[in-house]
Predict the 3D structure of the following.
Amino acid sequence: MSGMPTWTILGGGYQSYLKGDYQAAYNEWLPLAELGDAEAQYNIGVIYDEGAGVDQDLAVAADWYRRAGEQGFLDAQTNLGMMYYHGQGVDRDLQEAANWFQLAADQGDPEAMRYLALISG
């Protein structure tokens, strides 16, 4: 990429998404996600999580969140932690949930911190 900020590249997808044109957003984000852009990966995860213009598929959402989370994308880490906590799209696994919440908490995410406290109760 030619040094353009990610949001510039992803911006058209956001405009489409906010207008409710989820297919256009998906079509703009998917190639970037497949190239390894963490924000695009997270966005594709959200589309599958919400069933926005695609059939809802929590397992696919979890896979995209994992890819983004492994690159340090905070919201993806928290969302994947939630999926493990609730057993949505993945088998319920509190240890795995705690691992993802810890990564997000280390970046200062208050929601992840709350869930960590619940797990360690």
In short: Helices lie at 6-18, 22-34, 38-50, 58-70, 74-86, 94-106, 110-120. The two ends are 45 Å apart (CA to CA). The chain has seven helices and no strands.
